[in-house]
Amino acid sequence: MDLLRHLRYFVTVAEERHFGRAAERLHMAQPPLSQQIRRLEAELGVDLFVRTTRRVDLTEAGTAYLERARAILGSVDAAAEEARRVAAGVIGRLAIGCVGSATYSLLPDLSRRLADELPGVDFAFRGEMLVADQVDALRAGEIDIALLRPPVDDAGLSVTTLREERLVVAVPTAHPLAGRRQVRVADLAGTDLIVHSAGRRSAMYDVVRGLFADAGVVPQIRHEVGETSTLVTLVAGGLGAAVVPEPVGALALAGVAYRPLVRPARSVELAAAYRAERTEPHLQRTLGVLGELVGGSFTA
User: Fold this and answer.
1) Span 92-162+269-293: which CATH code?
2) In whole angstroms, what is the distance from residue 276 CA to residue 156 CA?
3) For the chain, is the Cβ count within 10 Å smaller at the N or the C terminus?
4) What is the pLDDT of residues 169-211, one digit of tens each?
5) Burial class (CB in 10 A: 0-12, 13-18, 19+), 53
6) Dihedral of the CA atoms 282, 283, 288, 292 (nearest 10)?
7) What's one GO-annotated cellular component (predicted)?
8) What is the distance between the alpha carbons of residues 44 and 33, in angstroms, rounded to a whole number?
9) Domain covering 2-88, topology
10) Distances (CA, A) of 9 to 4, 39, 50, 61
């Protein structure tokens, strides 16, 4: 820190070309300033200034030293400002992974809010991720925040519920159920179903199986898919019906009608998860924006 202080003293004197004015600018007395410059010259073994009774001028060595001193101070100031911005959570990098329904219903608004409120943070987004893949990606550090569906069996992750989402039925517009105001699970008996893949460890697969088991109906599963967009596309193609979280309705495709399930029907949770040891300010600020977007405060 002594060297940085000496550099600031030197640059100030070089800019003012006068010890008195430089001392005023530095809020110190002139004799101590002159002594500090003498000490710096002694340490360097060169004269930096030519002194007269009225002013001081830079020597050739002083001119060369001034250029480097300004560069050093500029880098130090920039580093300090960056450190303050990091501490304030306004710069950094984050990757966010989303389950299918969040990809379409939440991610558009979230990405806009983050761009407005945290423009210095470099965000990357991965949509249509299954929960098991999100957990693996969190552990591996490939994503920083996951918007997923509990339960998550990992003590190393902090998981906070963001909202409850009703289940609805997506049916082709030509299907008889499309004319109903609401649908019971029993109404889906004998109807071809499109579900998220069991083989890819989809949380929604287990939810749908449980929903039909509760109603005492054997599901007639005809297609298993990995992505929500593919699921809704197949419904639009008339290949079957699907039980999905209500926000999937944001993925509006011609040929698809969404009808609510008669209560009491199961709902599903949408939660935010991240590695519990992560405390970086920009991650916490991102979680705060996320909490505000879904209508509440995020409690880590």
Assistant:
1) 3.40.190.10
2) 6
3) N
4) 999 999 999 999 999 999 999 999 999 987 767 889 989 999 9
5) exposed
6) 100
7) protein-DNA complex
8) 17
9) Arc Repressor Mutant, subunit A (1.10.10)
10) 9, 11, 16, 16
Going by the DSSP 8-state scheme, the letter that residue 175 receives in this structure is: S
Name the token pair of 237: 């193609």
The answer to whether 184 and 262 are in contact (CB under 8 A) is yes
**Which of 285, 254, 294, 268 shows the shortest CA–CA distance to 99?**
268
Which tokens go with 148? 């997923």
110-148 confidence digits (pLDDT tens): 999 999 988 888 899 999 898 889 999 999 999 999 999
| Closest alpha carbon to 80 in 12, 16, 1 | 1
Cα distance between residue 207 and residue 151, in whole Å: 11
Angle, in degrees to the nearest 10, between helices 2-16 and 30-44? 110
d(CA 202, CA 133): 9
Contact indicator for 128, 196 with CB cutoff of 8 Å:
no
Q: What is the Cα–Cα distance from 239 to 192, expressed in whole angstroms?
A: 7
